[in-house]
Amino acid sequence: MNITTIRLRWLYMRGVFWWMGLAFTLIGTAVLLVVFTLWQGEEGFAANALQVGAKVTGKKTHIEKTGKKGTTPRTAYLLVYTYQDSARQEHEGSAEVSAQTWGDTKSGDDLTIEYDRTNPASSRLAGSEKRIRWGLWGMTGLGSLFATAGVLMAGSVWIASGRRVQRIRTGMPAVGVVEAVVENDSALKVPNTYRVLYQFTDERNATWKGRGPPQAWSRTGRWKAGDVILVLYDPQNPDRNEADLFEVRSEELAALQEQTEGDAATD
Q1: Residue pair 117/86 in contact by the 8 Å Cβ criterion
Q2: Which end of the chain is more exposed for a tag (fewer CB within 10 A), N or C?
Q3: In sequence order, what are the beta bridge partners of 74?
Q4: Max Cα distance, the chain (Å)
Q5: pLDDT of 5-37, one tens digit each?
Q6: Residue boundaries of the structural domains of the chain
Q7: pLDDT, tens digit, for every residue of 177-214?
């Protein structure tokens, strides 16, 4: 072989789906790690939470940027309150509420809050646990979705590349002819990728067709209709075939061509 197995596998693997798979996996894993940290914090707070009464001392708002591009403005409504811990130390806290609750609440109103007895300065409105946990479950689902999609995407590319490399390494050689180089028309189409279409005749003189994997034009553009190309196929099932696009076994193509020319001269 004119190229190592590792290098050949990399040539087949690399591409949009491989990088997308890795990106999705990393994003999903990062989200899950963040969620895990938040879950630990939530469990710790819930285990040490104490409910007490608080007094509203003020109200404020601020604008947050949301949306896919982080450009959609959203108004956050906050209530500011004070409370005393079990040691009668006074603390100030704030909590986001709905616009209606914010509008209906005034300074001096009573609130029920809960604070972390191991860190009395940390507090939130009583009853927030359910909303927070739903949010964490949502983030867990999102992270799992990204990670799973990434693993499946990268895994499928890994498996497919292994099959192609195996056919290149062990397949029976045959002289093929390029029929055309066409834009990739797969269901999951990657822009600016192309496939080499070819045909070949197996040892039983049956004609088969095949197409190479999606590749950039820099790798497929050198082929044109009528070019001779080496095809490696499974003798038990010639429909499983692979064109030697990277000329791994180019010396065998030359030998087959010489043999074909010799047979033609003899006839």
Answers
A1: yes
A2: C
A3: 64
A4: 108
A5: 888 888 888 777 888 899 999 999 999 999 999
A6: 171-266
A7: 999 999 987 766 667 889 999 999 999 999 999 999 88
